[in-house]
Automatic annotation (TrEMBL), chain A:
InterPro entries: NDUB7. It is found in: Mitochondrion inner membrane; Mitochondrion intermembrane space. Residues 1-28 are annotated as: Disordered. This is NADH dehydrogenase [ubiquinone] 1 beta subcomplex subunit 7. Keywords: Disulfide bond, Electron transport, Membrane, Mitochondrion, Mitochondrion inner membrane, Respiratory chain, Transport, Ubiquinone. Belongs to the complex I NDUFB7 subunit family. Its main location: mitochondrion. One of its GO terms (cellular component) is mitochondrial intermembrane space. It is a peripheral membrane protein. It comes from the Eukaryota. The keyword Membrane applies. The keyword Heme does not apply. Accessory subunit of the mitochondrial membrane respiratory chain NADH dehydrogenase (Complex I), that is believed not to be involved in catalysis. Complex I functions in the transfer of electrons from NADH to the respiratory chain. The immediate electron acceptor for the enzyme is believed to be ubiquinone.
From TrEMBL, chain B:
One of its GO terms (cellular component) is mitochondrion. The chain crosses the membrane at residues 125-147. This is NADH dehydrogenase [ubiquinone] 1 beta subcomplex subunit 8, mitochondrial. Keywords: Membrane, Transmembrane, Transmembrane helix, Ubiquinone. The gene is NDUFB8. The keyword Transmembrane helix applies. The keyword Membrane applies. InterPro entries: NDUFB8.
C-alpha cells in the first residue's frame, strides 16, 4: 500500500490508504462534480483546473471574458472560486 | 523718503545695528576669489613667494604645468587618502583627517573615506580563491540540504474526478 505508518508525513504522490468510511455509520456524501469531462474539454480548461471546483473556474473566466477590462465586476465569481479552493484544502489535510 | 535719506546720511542704521557691521565685515573676505590660486610663477622670487604662501619648502614646491587649465601657482603633490590617515591622531577635522592649513589636493573629494584608498593593498589570489570557495561551498551546502530535506505542507494531492475513484466530503449521510 501507499502510505507508511512510520513516515512523519503522508506521501503526496500516492493515494490515501485508510478506509474513508471509517467512523461513518451510514457513509459519507460523495463529492459532486458539476461539469462533465466533455464540457471541460470543449471549454479548454487547463488540466490542472479540472477539479471539483471547475464550475467556479468556468464562471469566473467567462465573466472575465465578458466584462474585460473591467475585471473587478467579477468579484463575486472570484470569491466563490477562491472559497471553493480554500474549502477544498480541509479534506486534503485530514485524509491520509 | 526724506527720513530714510537722512538716516542713511547720518549712518543711523549702521550705528544702531552693530551686528550688521560685524556680518558685513566678516563676509567681505573668505570668498571663492580669495582662495583662487595666484598666477603661474615664472621667476625664482615668485616661486619662493608661492612656496611660502602654501607653507612648503622651495624644494618641495612644484606648480602645475601652465597648460591653460588654470591651476596657477597651486602646488602639485601626491594625494593622500583619508582612509590611510591615522585614526588615533587628534586631527583638527577628524572626518577628513586633516589639520588646519594642510594642503588640499585638487581631487580631494575623490580620496575621501568612503571612496578611493590610494594606499590600499589588494588581496592575494590565494585569499580571493579562498573567499570564493568558502562562499560557494556554504551556498551549495544550503541548496543541497534544502533539496534533500524538504518540508512540504502536510496534505494530500488534489482530488481529480477520475473514473473508478470515489471522493467523499465530511458530511455524513443522513
Amino acid at each position: 500500500m501507499g502510505q507508511s505508518e512510520s513516515a512523519p508525513l503522508p506521501v503526496r504522490e500516492k493515494d490515501p490508504t485508510h478506509d474513508p468510511l471509517y467512523g461513518f455509520q451510514k457513509g459519507r456524501k460523495e463529492r459532486e462534480m458539476k461539469v462533465t469531462p466533455e464540457e471541460m474539454e470543449a471549454m479548454k480548461i487547463p488540466l490542472k483546473e479540472r477539479t471539483y471546483c471547475a464550475h467556479h473556474y468556468i464562471y469566473y473566466n467567462t465573466c472575465r471574458n465578458r466584462v474585460w477590462p473591467l475585471a473587478y465586476r467579477c468579484a463575486k465569481e472570484k470569491h466563490a472560486y477562491e472559497k471553493c479552493l480554500y474549502e477544498e484544502e480541509n479534506p486534503y489535510i485530514n485524509i491520509y | 523718503m526724506s527720513n530714510l535719506i537722512k538716516c542713511i546720511k547720518k549712518g543711523v542704521i549702521l550705528n544702531k545695528n552693530s551686528g550688521l557691521i560685524v556680518t558685513t565685515i566678516r563676509h567681505a573676505g573668505a570668498w571663492n576669489r580669495d582662495w583662487k590660486p595666484g598666477p603661474y610663477p615664472t621667476t625664482q622670487e615668485e616661486r619662493e613667494a608661492a612656496a611660502k604662501k602654501y607653507g612648503l619648502h622651495i624644494r618641495d614646491y612644484k606648480p602645475y604645468p601652465d597648460d591653460g587649465f588654470g591651476w596657477g601657482d597651486y602646488p602639485m603633490f601626491e594625494p593622500l587618502s583619508v582612509e590611510s590617515g591615522d585614526p588615533y591622531e587628534h586631527w583638527d577635522m577628524p572626518e577628513y583627517k586633516r589639520n588646519l592649513g594642510d594642503l588640499m589636493h585638487p581631487n580631494f573629494d575623490f580620496y575621501i573615506a568612503e571612496r578611493y584608498d590610494i594606499s590600499k593593498r589588494s588581496k592575494s589570489y590565494f585569499r580571493l580563491l579562498g573567499e570564493f570557495l568558502a562562499i560557494m561551498s556554504v551556498m551549495s551546502f544550503i541548496c543541497y540540504y534544502a533539496e534533500t530535506h524538504k518540508v512540504p505542507k502536510p496534505k494530500m494531492h488534489r482530488q481529480y474526478p477520475e473514473d473508478g475513484k470515489k471522493h467523499y466530503t465530511f458530511e455524513p449521510v443522513e
